[in-house]
Design brief:
By secondary structure, the chain is α/β, with parallel strands linked by helices. It is 30% helix and 24% strand. The chain contains 13 helices and 23 strands. Helix 3 packs parallel to helix 6, helix 4 runs parallel beside helix 6 and helix 10 runs parallel beside helix 11. The longest helix has 14 residues. It is globular, with a radius of gyration of 21 Å. The relative contact order is 0.14.
Length: 426
């Protein structure tokens, strides 16, 4: 396991960054959704990180032909997905495993989904149980709650009306993918809108998916193959957010993050920075599958904030926001965020235990935490194998210096993170 030391930044920065990692959520979906077409999909700027390359490898094991070079990925699917000869390794990707559950639930054959030691201990019942309720055959360790997961595909799943007890884009996406091969129209409802890349992309490919007046997403079964994808994957706003935080906490600094997804369900953390006093400007450029543009962030004096709504929009950015809260004037509160406990690590515990090492005053709740702003001191941080924790405290190191243990996990989503971090030194 590699460790990483960050030294305090000695001067402010003013920089444009056009090498932010491509969007992980969209890259995963590009690989998977290409299987619903009969023609070759062309995907430029596909994220070449461990998580998404694992999804690409699984697509290949299911029979698709994959051609990849520095500019784009080409995926040519087979008419019928084939039963793989080996287990399907999702690595560290919860998105990959949960979405493949939905996709494979209605494919004839037997499939085993596994992952690394961290993914094998993450809960999968939240996806497996609703899929089982519509006829899917999914089993696994811990009464079907943990990977490896065994899926025996069922060709004709039952249409459903499902009110989700959790607001999760992964659960929603798995159910939508299963519904595409159901025997009738299915209806899915969530309490608040979660990331909607799945609906946007599938509709762009020709799937009939619409939201009715009662808030149900109506998913019509496919009548044939979908159109292939021809897409340039934008920069990932969750990855870009670490450098927004760098500007927000470094006096007199400014950053422009280029060609980022401006999907409203993905920029909630930037709106929180605005509430804390940071200057944030969105410059939209284009909108095909997704709105895309630049984000400018300028340092301003920080004030405390209460975060208790639209948590599903912030689930990946809350660890980095905790760093901002630690330097803000007043006491910030995060509530209704129990979902943080079932990510790559228990992110509530990972955040507060590491903040304690940095001298920050906090109170931990079952569904969040309270942070009293002040200063940060150098410490040795345990990432718990969670890339978001490793990167968040690396950014904190710009203020006070930091030593991070187990940073290999950063490669799962943002291979050039360290290079961009060092570029802030000029």
């Amino acid at each position: 396991m590699e460790n990483f030391s960050i030294e305090k930044l000695e001067k402010p920065f003013d920089i444009e960054i056009d090498s932010i990692a491509s969007d992980k959520s969209i890259s995963h979906r590009c690989a998977m959704f290409s299987l619903f077409s009969n023609e070759t999909s062309y995907i430029k700027n596909f994220l070449t990180a461990e998580d998404t390359l694992n999804s690409l490898s699984i697509v290949e094991q299911l029979g698709a032909k994959v051609k990849r070079d520095a500019k784009q990925v080409e995926i040519t699917p087979t008419k019928e997905l084939k039963e793989p000869e080996n287990v399907l390794d999702c690595g560290n990707a919860g998105t990959g495993m949960r979405l493949f559950c939905g996709l494979l639930a209605s494919v004839d054959g037997a499939f085993v989904l596994t992952g690394d030691k961290y993914l094998r201990n993450r809960p999968m019942k939240r996806v497996a149980q609703p899929l089982r309720s519509i006829g899917a055959k999914i089993d696994g360790r811990d009464n079907g709650n943990k990977a490896p997961l065994f899926i025996r595909g069922v060709k004709e799943l039952k249409p459903f009306i499902y009110n989700s007890p959790v607001d999760s884009a992964q659960v929603k996406s798995a159910m939508i993918l299963a519904a595409l091969r159901a025997t009738g129209v299915s209806k899915y409802k969530e309490n608040e809108l979660t990331r909607d890349h799945t609906e946007r992309m599938l509709k762009g490919m020709g799937a009939k998916i619409e939201t009715d007046k009662e808030g149900y997403i109506n998913i019509h079964p496919l009548k044939g193959a979908l159109k292939s994808l021809n897409i340039t994957v934008p920069a990932d706003p969750s990855s870009a957010f670490f450098f927004a935080v760098a500007a927000a906490i470094t006096p007199n600094s400014r950053v422009v993050l280029k060609n980022v997804s401006l999907n409203p369900t993905r920029i909630g953390a930037y709106e929180i920075l605005k509430k804390m006093g940071v200057e944030v400007n969105f410059i939209e450029k284009e909108n095909i599958y997704e709105p895309i543009g630049d984000i400018e962030v300028k340092y301003k004096e920080l004030n405390a904030v209460v975060v208790d709504k639209h948590i599903s929009w912030l689930i990946d950015e809350l660890p980095a926001l905790a760093i901002v809260m630690s330097l803000a004037k007043g006491t910030s509160v995060v509530k209704n965020a129990k979902e943080l406990r079932v990510k790559e690590s228990d992110r509530i515990k990972s955040v507060v235990t590491n903040l304690e090492k940095c001298g920050v005053n906090f109170t931990e709740f079952e569904d969040g935490y309270e942070i009293t702003g002040g200063s940060l001191k150098r410490a040795t941080i345990d990432s718990h194998g969670d890339h978001r924790i490793a990167m968040s405290f690396s950014i904190a190191g710009l203020i006070c210096g930091m030593d991070i243990q187990d940073v290999d996990c950063i490669l799962t989503s943002f291979p050039n993170f360290k290079a961009i971090l060092e570029s802030l030194r000029g």
